[in-house]
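Q: Here's a chain of 368 amino acids. Please give me its 3D structure as tokens.
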Amino acid sequence: MDITVAVAREGQADFSIERATLDDPRADEILVKLVAVGLCHTDIVAQTGAIAPLPAVLGHEGSGIVEKVGSAVKKVKPGDRVGITFRSCGTCDWCQRGEAPYCLTMPLLNYAGMRPDGTKAIRTAREPLSSNFFGQSSFATYCLAYERNCVKVPDGVPLELVGPLGCGVQTGAGGIMRSLACRKGSSLLILGGGAVGLSAVMGAKVQGCGTIIVVEPHAARRALAMELGATHTIDPSASPDLPAAVKAIAPVGVDYAFDTTGIPPLQEATMTCLAPHATFGIVGIAPPGTKFPGDLMTAMTFGHSIKGIIEGDSDPDVFIPQMMALYRKGQFPFDKLITTYPFTEINRAIAEQHAGQCVKVVLVMDGA
């Protein structure tokens, strides 16, 4: 079928809006008419060709309505409202344990830019495009997805806003609620007040953390952090000595830290902000070759743990419905993070997000 896509091309700073052809769904595939798609930092990294080969149709926080299903699909039917997340195999030991982010075929199913058999589902008149990004490639008006990465969206949850639950929001909230499983009354330091960091704030509020500190340079984001449940914020430009600023709030250090920035000096400084037996969870993408932060003997002496976290260590079929249920109860207002833009204005949206004019972009399809 004919669709409209945003294409990342080699040597091209912006996405180009183009017409393309999408395959009909195979037996295990689900055709989704997209209503909207979130813009994630991973898409910007992938735009450079650092993940999937270019030219590529990226996008991995889609939401929409099931249009058609393959003969083997039982989980959803045409007309169902769905949010789309990362893909996993469902059969390896990690998937069977509910640890889908560590699926043994995660790279093949999400980053290769093609189906496992090597075929590409999207093409223009002149060439095939890398597709199946995160099992969806949802920078498009239609996409193909799978049972393992589609989650039904109940009434009472705005379909056009749920896409970010599939990655950015899931990463932040899941990092706090599932991976770190922060204790009630505990202290937490969150590095970065973007979509992932502010989702972590909401997760910390749900967990009942007693002290929630957010480090963020943008004043508007610090204010939003306080609105969402942070107890303190730190402006790094006004307080460059992070350990001193943190220990003025939590004198013995924090029980948990959570990095969304990937900034090595900030990660290094965080190690001296930790209380005994604290855990430091990292989701921020640091430059290649970055060493583990801190001193090994100090970490051993005080029982510190450093933990890498993917997708909030979430089982999407469990955690995404949990977030939607909390939203319906008024306990997880993720919609406050979102600014919507027309899909065709993707490049303007990227520029304004980069400038700090918005926190989380959601691109809405025409007529949605």
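Q: Can you summarize the key feature?
A: The CA atoms of residues 27 and 70 lie 4 Å apart.
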